Amino acid sequence: MAKRTNSTPPNDRARHRTTPAYFHGPDVSGLHRRHLAVIPYTINRESTMERVIDLGVDGIITDDPDLLALVAKRNGLR
User: Fold this and answer.
1) Cβ distance 51 to 28 under 8 Å?
2) Residue among 25, 64, 32 at smallest CA distance from 48
3) What is the pLDDT of residue 7?
4) pTM for the predicted model, two decimal places
5) Do residues 31 and 4 lie in contact, with contact meaning Cβ atoms separated by under 8 Å?
6) CB 21 within 8 A of CB 27
7) I need a surface site. Which of 17, 27, 52, 64 has the fewest CB within 10 A?
8) Percent of the chain, pLDDT > 90?
9) Pairwise CA distance, residues 20 & 34, whole Å
10) Is the pLDDT of residue 12 over 80?
């Protein structure tokens, strides 16, 4: 049996940084079709905030609300 690992292969790491939809788990639109809200936590990095906003999440839980407000404003959100 193959051993499972949490490490991302090197060629996927660059794609992970540049492709907003490269996340583990169900896609946001699929969850929305089931009438579920998507609110990821704890998002403290600006780049991750940008990615999850691009995915269409309904909210973000963070330890840095000032950064989130800045990122949200830049993305036309309030």
Assistant:
1) no
2) 64
3) 46
4) 0.66
5) no
6) yes
7) 17
8) 60
9) 21
10) no
- Residue 50 CA to residue 34 CA, distance in Å, equals 24
Question: CA-CA distance, 61 to 76, in Å (whole number)?
Answer: 18
- Which residue reads 């991750």 in tokens? 48
CA angle 27, 78, 66 (to 5 degrees): 95
pLDDT tens, residue by residue, 23-59: 566 789 999 999 999 999 999 999 999 999 999 999 9
Residue 15: which region, alpha, beta or left (left: phi > 0; alpha: psi -120 to 50)? alpha
Answer for the pair 43, 49: CB distance below 8 angstroms, yes or no: yes
SS (H, E, C) 29-76: HHHHHCCCCCCCCCCCCHHHHHHHHHHCCCCCCCCCHHHHHHHHHHCC
- Residue that is written with structure tokens 């788990």 in the block: 25
